[in-house]
Write a structure and sequence with these properties.
With 80 residues, the protein is mainly alpha-helical. Helix content is 76%, strand content 0%.
Length: 80
């Protein structure tokens, strides 16, 4: 698979950051944060689908490549 576009990595990172914010929340705060996470998650999924269609790539492979690229970027000490 070709290189993963930075925009997809940024969207995935955003969704993961919103998901992480759910920890420890309850009630209305949890519900509001869950909606923010869900919106970010839907955005990344839509972008992955659009990229896969535009490049005629397998959608599942694109999603896996995005997740792998994000993990690799987070493990790189030069990335902050």
């Amino acid at each position: 698979m070709a290189e993963v576009p930075d925009e997809l990595i940024k969207l995935e990172r955003s969704a993961e950051e919103e998901r992480a914010k759910l920890a420890g929340l309850t009630g209305g705060e949890y519900d509001a944060q869950w909606r923010r996470w869900r919106k970010a998650s839907e955005a990344v999924q839509a972008a992955i689908t659009a990229h896969a269609e535009a490049t005629e790539a397998d959608r599942g492979e694109v999603e896996q490549a995005v997740k792998k690229a994000l993990r690799n970027a987070q493990e790189d000490p030069a990335v902050e």
